[in-house]
């Protein structure tokens, strides 16, 4: 492979009664309003208006009386687990990442306002927005805006219409390898930058865009990354015209991941350390410079990521799966899924939540070890190299969030060795998928839980695929070339070298077809 050098470097909006952003606080009965109407409610707009301008005009014309005002704020995460522990709170317009006591923050929504409307209302509202181009509701994230950032102006939102990703029925993989008939893969990697990180980054960069318009001291946005976070941050910042800064561990991410922030104009620092070292440095830098911290220490991203859970329910016509398996590294995503599911239950869209499984690479498995100890002794680990590079994290920021999610969902933690995750990835690919190594970790967890009988043959199970396989082609090349040290690569499928004559080709084809006939 060539060396790679780093140089310095006229749509009609929905019925007005559905717009809840600026509203009074009058009490409403808990009834289910009619689904949004698709009939025109406003005069025809001039054809030169783009979808953002149409939303602006619609909002100006919308009557917003007789609806509760939806809002959200930062609270210490400890007050989520123990409501009596603190009454501290912060506006989402403050630049703050931790509570006064140093704990993580969480975005807390005004659930009493959201409960003015019943579950049927929210289901109808969310369903009415799917597949539309109305700004910003064409996004799988912003179609749930009232549950994400309810007070942000539509005009401040930076979106690539992310989300709405494929929920794939893994029919052959489930049947042939696991004896399952209801196995699904949520392809979050089929997204703007190729990973689930887009779901959170649209929320964070939109809020930064709002803060900059409010003249808050934010010059740029920065992150430490093992690849996918930097790709999402750089893309959304580029769309917003906001400078992005990326700290990457040198020589530890794929070329496909490295080139994304570079292509999107980010200022990239390749640092001789691991992810945990990069994370420590970016936290120190953002404490001194007007750079907004974009890592999952920042709870805004989790508000976007939780919409993938809501989307799964939506894609199942609001029926709850039995299991959802999520790869885990920094551990924000497992909590985000829990939060999405639990909000749906609390607000009456569903009557239960699925059991969650967090899957870790054995080379970076502090949560797994903590789980196996009976939640008695958490110790960070020094993460070893893993093909699942995005979860190569030994000291996860969101450990407390993950434990809370797992305990409250009767959850499980599993691990995958390097050989197990690569074999699982290759096996899935052989049935028509093209998965990333992190999905291989989740599939390994599924295999182990299926073999042990914990997951049954008819259990509706969703494996969350967090990134696109095209970001990890080198690992696939190495596997199918049997070019990985100390790994059998037992499912490798290398090309067969044949001389250029008809007889030789026929001999090879006959042998191949004969092997497939048995």
UniProtKB/TrEMBL annotation:
Pathway noted in the entry: Amino-acid biosynthesis; L-threonine biosynthesis; L-threonine from L-aspartate: step 5/5
Catalytically driven reaction(s): O-phospho-L-homoserine + H2O = L-threonine + phosphate
PROSITE patterns assigned: DEHYDRATASE_SER_THR
Swiss-Prot/TrEMBL keywords: Allosteric enzyme, Amino-acid biosynthesis, Chloroplast, Lyase, Plastid, Pyridoxal phosphate, S-adenosyl-L-methionine, Threonine biosynthesis, Transit peptide
SUPFAM superfamilies: Tryptophan synthase beta subunit-like PLP-dependent enzymes
Residues carrying N6-(pyridoxal phosphate)lysine: 197
UniProt subcellular location: Plastid, Chloroplast
Residue ranges annotated for the Tryptophan synthase beta chain-like PALP domain, each copy included: 159-466
Annotated Gene Ontology cellular component terms: chloroplast
Cofactor: pyridoxal 5'-phosphate
Region (Disordered): 25-46
EC number: 4.2.3.1
GO biological process: threonine biosynthetic process
Residues spanning the signal sequence: none
Gene Ontology molecular functions: pyridoxal phosphate binding; threonine synthase activity
Ranges that cross the membrane: none
PANTHER family: CYSTATHIONINE BETA-SYNTHASE (PTHR10314)
Subunit structure: Homodimer.
Functional description taken from the UniProt entry: Catalyzes the gamma-elimination of phosphate from L-phosphohomoserine and the beta-addition of water to produce L-threonine.
Family: Belongs to the threonine synthase family.
Record protein name field: threonine synthase
Source organism per UniProt: Gossypium mustelinum (Cotton)
